[in-house]
Queue: 2 jobs
Job 1
Amino acid sequence: MNDTLKILIGIVIPLAGTVGGAAMVFLLKGEMKPQIQKILLGFASGVMIAASVWSLLIPAIEMTKERGGIAWLPATVGFLLGMGFLLLLDSVIPHLHVHSEKPEGKKTKLGKNMMLILAVTLHNIPEGMAVGVVFAGAKASGASISTASAFALSLGIAIQNIP
């Protein structure tokens, strides 16, 4: 299988998870019990933390160590810049959280549905960036990121998107 097809499949896997999660709306038509909702959110959070650490942060630290740099510095700077970027997007993009009547971000006349779509998009931006970065790292010559670990991250993101 050529590299382009592998990357395309790796990108489609999280998309399938998002579609699968959205399809659950049709299966769970009634109100979800709060306890089940907490379990699903906890599961999704755990998967994303594991994916972030093992597929992004640890490989970044190892790659820097191999090149003789300060091992923790690029991963820390990237992590902090990512947080800042998401905080900026969160304050600029008008969006609405589930079970909330008051929108966040800039004031807008957008409807409730459009703001919910923007909230989901805001959630998916870092996931898409993570998948793109890890597949770019796997494709780069001399990188210590394997295609298998790139697919593992992609699958982890897909799994956490379902709940």
Job 2
Amino acid sequence: MVYHLRGRWKEVEEFERQELRAMTLEEHWQKLNAIVRFAISTGMNIERDESEIEVFARWAKLKAHYETG
């Protein structure tokens, strides 16, 4: 079952990539602004971490966890 789910997620990921490639710059900005407006309107507490290394480390950890199942 895990094998099937990984394959399905890869299909979803490829579909999302195609959607992103097809979007215009304006559409990207509209999506980003919608996310920011949602965060502000719901009162989300967003702590800023300016360190790119920390961000890359978090993504690497998530990716490793996803790939190992």
